[in-house]
């Protein structure tokens, strides 16, 4: 908890929970990017084929993709650098990874955490699951559920009363994972009928 206090409320959600209270990350592309890369908001990112609506999140459940594949594809569509793509799996997106990012002990900039959280949640509202998982049972109460609602445009200004929510990170992440598994299973089932 003390570590989280020292983070000055730079939360692990910016798209759907809050915006990190840090200076914007400056892209490190002054010397140019190598072939096959372009300068993106977090530095050099690998070039990918992009559709016209590439900034709109649309999960593709038609192909039986694993939750990690869905998570990674979202991170790639959001032009996260390779150093951040390493966090775009359920097992690698951890509290320790966040702490390392916040203290600049990781090459992935802390400014990318909001995008990673959005992708982990697949841009959905998971408050119902989070409530069942006890996310609202901290001293902050239901306020912690804000981290579970990652719909685009859902932004909340945080204060110190949200600090205890960090203790529920794994419960929140579990809801994201279970939702991806359930949706994938339902998609597979519906194709058989």
Automatic annotation (TrEMBL):
Signal peptide positions on this chain: 1-17
Superkingdom classification of source: Eukaryota
Keyword Plastid attached: no
Claim: Transmembrane is one of the keywords in the record: no
Keywords: Signal
Residue ranges annotated for the Domain of unknown function DB domain, each copy included: 74-176
InterPro entries per record: DB
Protein name: DB domain-containing protein
